[in-house]
Design goal:
Double Stranded RNA Binding Domain
Length: 64
């Protein structure tokens, strides 16, 4: 079993490309939230997350 999280790229039931980030224990910890028309679009989404999330701040938002 891998000790690091892995991005999985796959086609959904509508034929769109999506990604999900899977932890080493098999839990999905993030997903694309949208379908992409091309595999390259999904890959660009992954690269955007890698670029932007490393230094992202946490903001707590109250709803309601």
């Amino acid at each position: 079993m891998s000790r690091t999280a892995t991005f999985e790229v796959y086609r959904d039931s509508a034929g769109e490309w999506r990604w999900r980030l899977v932890a080493s224990n098999g839990n999905i910890i993030a997903d694309s939230g949208e379908g992409y028309s091309s595999k390259q679009g999904a890959e660009r989404g992954i690269e955007s997350v890698k670029r932007n999330a490393a230094d992202a701040e946490v903001e707590f938002v109250e709803e309601g």
